[in-house]
Write a structure and sequence with these properties.
single chain, 432 residues, Beta-Lactamase, 5-stranded antiparallel beta sheet, 51% helix
Amino acid sequence: MVKFSGMDMLLILQKNLYHTELQEREALLNSVIENIPYDFWALDENNNYFIQSKASKVYWGTLLGKNFNDIKIPESSKIVFGKTLERVKKGEVVNEVNRILDVNGDLYYFQNISGPLVIKNKIKGALGFNIDITERKIVEEKLVQNEEKFRNIFNNSTDSIIIHSVMGQIYESNSIFRNLIDYTEDECIDKQIFDFVDHESTLKFKNEIASLSLNNLDFTTEAILITRSNSFIPIEIKSKVITYLGRNALLTIIRNVSYRKRFERKLLDAIIETEEKERAQLAADLHDEIGPLLSSMKMYISLLKDTKDIEKSKFVGEQVFTLVTEAITSIREISNSLSPHVLTNYGLIEAVKNVIQSVSKFIEIDFSSNCEKMRFASNTETVYYRVFKELLNNTVKHAQATNIIISFIFENDRLTFTYKDDGKGFDYEKSF
């Protein structure tokens, strides 16, 4: 019969308690490893897996008790892991992003953190984490793609683009703007957008910015741009409130309107010249057509004062009546040339066809329209008619053309007038 002293019993009890505590700690550690929310694994110096988290099994299946060389995962993934193990076995700690396929062939991005398992200063294996960052990488890739798209649009736009603060501080500008003002990118960063416009434009620009509100997030204005060489360029500014790097900013598009301004000037000059021609023509018509008729009437009427001869009075009356009739006809013709009654009463297309009919014996005209029964605003019809008349007159007088193609097409609430002839034309660059 074995006898135990009190001390022996105490030692046995302590040993049992220690063993129980050790088992509990081991169970706790295994539970922690098992429930790590990441792909966590460890293998020994012979590349046999002895630790694997539950999350790891979702990606790779069961690895426990298997050798690395025997696991069934896509070959591309195995190559990546193999290279990582080679580095770890040499004592390197690896921290990198890998793009790999799981056991089912699904693509993931993992932040891989792997290192050597060191016991008594000797490498006895390896352990590692794979943190799934797929969603983050997809977002990052989309951001990169959006940034590339933005940069392509930003730098390849035909207009100048500037992103700046509401105080005018320039954050970014595209090459079109910098080429226009002849400044480098670095020079622009230290500038305000107001530094590149004249004083009057600056005041107008600032007033537009000050008027922005929740219900009014954009504006359009005109300004004068000043270049490095002190050249002045008329521009159109379109600005819109945006969020840039987490703060309010303005996206401003600047369009060089020098050509448009020159064209408007040419157009205005042409309109004034046309009006002067019309006035001169009116004066000439009144002088050449109405003047002689009125003079003749005056002469015949003066004869009535000095005669009592009935036959003579009858003759004079008939002549005056004829002259009055001719005067009325001449006035009607002059009035019609300025504002034709056909245009007023029957519309643009009928007025155009009326003119075409009168000149068709001299030149071949191909006319087409899909709006013959339509009427437009009076000003619209007048403008189109006068442009048509001016083009036709130029063709007949100067172009030496033999054919004209004319069309009036109305679609999508827009009236398009097309005029072509086969005449000799003119030098566009010299004229504009």
